[in-house]
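[Q] Does anyone have a clean structure-token version of this?
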Amino acid sequence: PARSASAPYHPTMAEIASIAEHISTTERNAADAEIDATQMKKLEFFQRQLAGRNPQIFAATVVDVRNYGLMVELPDALITGLIHVSSLTDDFYLFEPARRRLIGRRSRKSFKVGDDLSVFVARVDVFKRQVDFAIAPATERSKASRRAKRSLKNA
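[A] Here you go.
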């Protein structure tokens, strides 16, 4: 039946469900696009860090330990990356799966979930959307912690 132009439109429940589904799908696509764009900007930032002559030192927390390395999260950047076991050059590290830690064969130094580290960017793979980090040398870590303490005092 034809509707008059002045009569109000009352969609059926099926039409409302279809419109709601379309809106939900569109909103999910927009949210995914925002996450992707944010991730790409972070990767661009870390690529610039890698290209710089004086790499910035970042605070990181170990969030997982695997046989191939440490997964770390940078709380200030909200990004997760890998410290590959091959970049831990001060010792040969063995994985203890039961305790989920890496332990140095010679030094007995260990890394476990929750450990706080100072890291710098070692590699960025934009295609795979991955960032690899390396542990900052002790002299760089102490400079970074002094800078952090100084900036806290001045705040």
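[Q] Thanks! Anything notable?
[A] Residues 143-155 have pLDDT under 50 and may be disordered.
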